Amino acid sequence: MTKTTFQIVEASEIVEVRTRILRPGQWPLPEHYPQDHLSSTYHFSAKYEGQTIGVATFMVNSLPKDISESVVAKSEKTTCLQLRGMGVLEPFQRQGIGGKIIRFATQLFCEEHCDPQTTLIWFNAREHAIAFYQKLGFQTSGDFFDVPKIGAHKIMWSVLRDVS
Ligand SMILES: CC(C)(COP(=O)(O)OP(=O)(O)OC[C@H]1O[C@@H](n2cnc3c(N)ncnc32)[C@H](O)[C@@H]1OP(=O)(O)O)[C@@H](O)C(=O)NCCC(=O)NCCS
After folding, report:
1. Which CATH architecture has domain 4-162?
2. Are 32 and 59 in contact (CB under 8 A)?
């Protein structure tokens, strides 16, 4: 996968692949998030031979109200970024691409956009992906909850500086 490149892209470049990975039953309808076109939202892609094979979106969004007290205490003085739409096309999974997208994004945030000490990243993780995120330094918070038609999720989070 030496030909894989990582970059910030426009929402229009990733919504189709996002939908194919995360909402396969809806494909080819692109799934948009309301924040997709805000200037504070960043979309990342991995490309292999010019084709988008992996995607992730980070947007400014406060923590859910019911997140555990320990996370809330850490987040009082922070910017909170929510990760959404994380996915790698199936033939390219388990080859390090997903981890590289997250590291590319978090390194860029550290260097250019955010204070690594006070920026917190959080998201709703699908149950089967929790181990993937844990390897990158994210922690779970609270109990599983169900998202209709998708399944069990847990909130996960990390201070930006601790993602690696
Ligand atoms: C979850 C997902 C994004 C991971 O991306 P990926 O490119 O396959 O992951 P990587 O190859 O970078 O894996 C990094 C590490 O996590 C581990 N890992 C990846 N997916 C895993 C899984 N489903 N369960 C357990 N461990 C996993 C890998 O073994 C690897 O560990 P290693 O470095 O020790 O070998 C990808 O499998 C995917 O798109 N799944 C379908 C969509 C989805 O569920 N997205 C997450 C929504 S919350």
Report:
1. 3-Layer(aba) Sandwich (3.40)
2. no
